[in-house]
Known about the structure:
Structural class: alpha/beta
CATH architecture of the largest domain: 3-Layer(aba) Sandwich
Protein name: Tryptophanase
EC number: 4.1.99.1
GO molecular function: tryptophanase activity
Helix content: 40-55%
Family: Belongs to the beta-eliminating lyase family.
CATH superfamily of the largest domain: Type I PLP-dependent aspartate aminotransferase-like (Major domain)
Cofactor: pyridoxal 5'-phosphate
Shape: globular
Number of domains: 2
Number of strands: 16
Bound molecules: ligand F0G
Amino acid sequence: RRIQPEPFRIKMVEPVSIPDKAQREEALKRGHFNLFGLRSEDVYIDLLTDSGTGAMSKQQWAALMRGDEAYAGATSFYALKEAVKDILGFDYVIPCHQGRAAENVTFGALVKPGDRIPFNMPFDTTRAHIFNVGAEPVDCVIDEAYDPAKYHPFKGNVDIAKLEKAIQTYGVERIPLIMVTITNNSGGGQPVSLANLREVRKVADKYGIPLFLDAARMAENAYFIKTREEACKDMSVAEILKACMDCADAITVSAKKDPLVNIGGLVCTRTEDLYYKILPRVILFEGFATYGGLAGRDLECLAQGLREMVQEDYLSHRIAQVAYLGDLLDEAGVPFVKPTGGHAIFIDAAAFLPHIPQKYYPADVLGVEVYREGAVRGIGLGALAFATEDEATGEIVYPKLELFRLAINRRTYTNSHMEYVAETIINVYKRRDSIRYGLKVDFAPAAKGLHHFLAHLSPV
Ligand code: F0G
């Protein structure tokens, strides 16, 4: 079947409506042509992010009532610890308020100025956190990741030769950890194979460098492994996920993605030594060790969400829903990163609007046009988010990919919403040649790697 029916029914509805054209124009002006500047009521279908925007299950809402709000040693913390042990296999658990908080405490404890962190690719806030401690990420993803049209089952894989080269170039003493993002968000929500994770593990062992996973979308990654990695086809998603986790010394997690909560994050470590290295910063920035900036009820919902994220009927529908949107766009010839990612469609804005030079932010122009067309909100992930200035020459270094992302919220929108989104995008695609403007930055606060969130833009 091309359309997989939803494995849930709707118990509570949240009314949404389509603002008319005049309202949309007004909203764009008010928001300075930056989609982060729109208000929720300005939007009909909000695909800005899949982060914290999913619907909780009735079991999660029930768990919320069990929340124990004790400052230290809450029952809810132990429920979370047990779920982490069962689902992920780690003994040491640090709750944090979200993913970047997990990164802040981890990088702050382990990374020093001048360090390099080899990655497949980091996401924008992860990258900004590495800059924030005076270090830099080194992208070691396979070359296929940079070719949106090219099919590769594991386009998020680390190129082992690039990883070895990075270690040799910068030296073990400047590499406090290796990190692999599963799935690779910046590269199109593309998975990393279990075989690749095991190879990265071997390299980590060879040089004695800890391996961390940025595991925000670890269940979707495991589902792709089950469906695409021959050696794993008879394993359950839960078994595959455990096997992936077994490769890592520690993970940082934005629980707002696969773990199905509206707020929350985790650092999980294999050893007590690593746990105690990170923990003091948690107390400084997040809260005591057993709540880390979350309410007890959040910990309960997260414990339940971790168990739900590996349910195969849920995952199968989720991945199929994203693929359905991809199929509809593909039939109309809309260029996007192939194969479709786990959490989102990443439209290739450079191919969609080839007449707009990258310095005029085609991904963000596309975002404005898609909003204008159908009050659908996505997000540009191109030059505006990822261009950097070469410190030596002052030259702008543009990213290799210029993408516009439509992130699908978990358990939130129906397949017919996907049809509406496809129609909106296809309408813009049909009139693409008439889109003859770019965007320029009128104002942006000085903040390396973060200005796209706050920039004021205008058409030129
Ligand atoms: N790592 C990855 C791979 C992410 O995609 C994100 C967030 C983070 C870390 C940070 O987590 O938001 O909980 O602090 N990505 C969101 C997105 C915001 O839209 O893709 P956070």
